[in-house]
Every structure is written in structure tokens, then in C-alpha cells.
Amino acid sequence: LHVFRLHAWVFSRCSGYLPQFTWASYMTNSPTMIVMVGLPARGKTYMSKKLTRYLNWIGVPTKVFNLGVYRRKAVRAYKSYDFFRHDNEKAMTIRKQCALVALQDVKAYLNDEGGQIAVFDATNTTRERRELILNFANDNSYKVFFVESLCDDPDVIAENIMEVKVSSPDYPESGSDSVMQDFLKRIECYKVTYQPLDPDDHDKNLSLIQVINVGRRFLVNRVQDYIQSKIVYYLMNIHVHSHSIYICRHGESLHNVEGLLGGDSELSERGKQFAVALRGFIEEHKLSDLKVWTSQLRRTIQTAEELGVHYEQWKILNEIDGGVCEEMSYKMIEEKYPKEFLMRDQDKYLYRYPGGESYQDLVQRLEPVIMELERQGNVLVICHQAVMRCLLAYFLDKGADDLPYLKCPLHTVLKLTPVAYGCKVDTFDLGVEAVNTHRDRPLVSLLFIRFFYKCYCYCGCNVCLPPDCNLASKHLDKVGIFHSTTVFTLLFYWGRGELKEK
Predict the structure, then answer these.
(1) Which of 73, 225, 375, 408 has a CA that sits 20 to 30 A from residue 325's CA?
(2) Enzyme catalytic residues
(3) What does the domain layout of the chain look like in residue ranges?
(4) What is the CATH number of domain 245-429?
(5) Smallest Cα–Cα separation from 119: which of 194, 33, 46, 188?
(6) What is 2-235's CATH topology?
(7) Model confidence, pTM
(8) Helices marked H in 144-211 — which ranges?
(9) Residues in Cβ contact with 235 at an 8 Å cutoff, skipping those fewer than 6 apart
(10) CA-based max dimension of the chain
């Protein structure tokens, strides 16, 4: 260990410092800093937010540190482009101080808060600033991956300014013309000192990707690890062109009516009515260039067949695999597999059905779908409840705790339109009744409470802990719970009238 640290120290202080020889490069799982580079209005914040959303979705804790936020805290009122002139010494001091504060927050996130990746979203247009970041990363044993956005297409730049900067906190009361003029002058201020990454010479030892003209070309240099390869893979698939994604579940199925999970049942009569209504929806909105994707299960295929358009079947869009619980109701599962029923309520995202899948497994399975949705134009995805939840969690930036409980009602179409810094959602209820298949998040497992309640009724004791009650211990052994609780939880539900003595 000391030898490796000595090597890192020597390399960091040699002339011609090579960043790949840092201590972090010896470590497989070192935290990573993604450092954005580029002039304003090149899509850096757009990419950093999408990249952060994607990494969190696949289970890599990631957070954006936008330097503009720190600057606005330090300088309450933005005046004009004059703040960004390189000869404005007072402003340059403030900007550097903001960068140092942001880097300390990066350190706290990666060292103390369980973060794995920090996205440093700023222009970082000078070698001096990038050297500051590299030294900081080296001192803290972080890997660094640069993402530079290069764009010389005036139409793209103008569109970015109008779509993003008009709504910027820097211009809360300015008209579009004045915003455009001020922002163009701000860009000129940065151009004076801009030093692009040079992967052929000065920066040949850095890990980086250059995104040229919003994805028309890419240059990748010295990818260090699996995470960096995932970042490259993702950035090469996203685009900034306007498009919409329509997502809905299949029409109501016979299994939905019977309250059974999974399976491959056909549509009910109301499900067939929804398929007809969905065709009317497509015609009404004039979605002539729409691509339609389904799973390989009959209920999605029957829904798509009514549309009268070509559709593609994706096996990876199939519903979550319920394993031994397939084609069972929740009541049947609770009675036959009480331990499994309880465990799923405790952590629905990570719980895996015996012989089946978890939501975490499903997210990994659906990753290619996300990549294709980012690449394509307008698409309609006809899928299933768990699949729809995973897709929505990606676009709406929902975490693992919320993902399994997102509401995805039958016979409802969601229109998702990616915008500058998020996703706009429009909901269309097509007016065909259907059963409600949603289960709310349990506050406390009702099965757990039920066992204590049975114990309470049987023993007649006022306070019942597992060590004091044979019946409680018996039930607890049955469901595999080994921690104790007090009667207060029971009394809470008793007071709400949710428990009735039989």
C-alpha cells in the first residue's frame, strides 16, 4: 500500500504529469469525477443531467454539482456578460472561490455520503482550471473522466440558447432579444481564453470523450474502467432532437379481472375496447410516423393488432417474471408463501421472486430499451405494469424506493417529451373502465401486524414481545422474522380501526 502511495506521489509531482498514474488508477472501484468541458450553450447541463439520471437508474449513486448554482448563491443579482470577462479580476476571484466550494461538496459527497460519481458541471474551458480539478482528484484518489461538448453549428447553438437560457435564473425578467444578445456576448468572453481538450498532444493521457455537434461525431480517449465505458455508451446514444415517447399498458386482461399476477392471458372485453380507443387516439393526434413496440405476450400483441400499423415485438419488454408466484393472486401468495409475501413488502425493489425476477433485475433487462428510446423518434411502447414503472422511473428521475409504487393505471396513455432539463408528462385517460391493479406502499407490513394481533387475541396480554409469547414466536419463525417490536404498532392500527377481533 505504501509503495503504491509513493508511486502516486512521485508521478503527481513530476514534470509532464500523467494523470493515469494516480493512486486512483490502481483502484478498481475508486469514486469518479465526470468533468464537463465546453463553451456555454453546448448542451453540457443537458448531458450532465441525463447522464446523472441514467447512472442513478442503473444503481450507481450519482449527483450533479452545477457551478452556476454556486455562482448565483455568491452573486445574488446577475448584471450582464461583464461578469464573465477574463480581465474582470474581482469576478474571476469569485468564480474560482465558487469552484473550490463546489469541489469541497464533491469531496463530502464521494467520501461521506455514499456517492460513487460526481458530475462537475461547469465550462472548465482553461487548462489552469482543469489542472486544479486534476490535482484535487489526485489528492483524494478519484478517477477523472472529461466530457467535452464541441459545437460550431450556429442553428444548434441558437436553439440551445432559446430553449435553455431564456428560462435560466440569470434572466428572470429579460426579453428574448436581450437574453440572446447578452448570452452571445457571454460566449465571446469564454472564447477569449478557451483551450479545448487536446487528445493528440497535451491531453493525450487523460480519459475523455469529445461529443462533436451534438453527437454527429465522437472522439474517445483512454477509457479506464467499466463505468467510463458505460458513460461513453450512453452519450453515444442520446440526442437532443425533439421527440415524444408514448407509454401505456396493454388493455385489461382476463388475469387482471381475476386478480392474478403474470401469465399470458388474453384481453377482456374492456381490454378490446381500449385497443379500439387507442387506435382512435393515434389517429386523432396524427401520429403517422409512430413506431410501435410490444412485448411477446398476447395481451400487448392483441392491443397492438387493433391499431392497424406495423409493430415490433421485444422479449425484453415482457412483464416481470413472478417465478413460483406466476398466475397467483396476492391473497394466494400470502397464504402459500407468507415469508415471500412479507419479504416483498419490506423491499419491493430488491426482492426477487423465487425462480423469478426483482425490479432491479428488470431495470438491467430494460437498459437496451432505454438506449433505443433515446435514439429513436416518436415511439409508442405497449407494455406491462412493472415494465412501465421502470421506464417511467428513468424519464421522471425516480429512485429505487419510489419506482415499484409508481401508479400506472390501465387504459391510460402517458406522453413523455424530453425537454432541456427534465421531461414533460401529459396524461390521457381514454375513458374505458378497468380494474385497479395498483398496491400502495405498506406503512408497516399488515402480515406482521396480523400475527401480533392473533397473538394478542389468543393470549390476552397487554404487551407481547416475541421472547414472552410462544404463539408470537411460532408465527415469527414461520415468516422468518427475528427482530422484536412492541404493542404500540398494534395499538396504532387498532386505534385506526384497521384491526377487528374475529
Answers:
(1) 408
(2) 121, 151, 250, 319
(3) 2-235, 245-429, 446-495
(4) 3.40.50.1240
(5) 33
(6) Rossmann fold (3.40.50)
(7) 0.83
(8) 154-164, 176-193
(9) 47, 51, 147, 209, 211, 215, 218
(10) 82
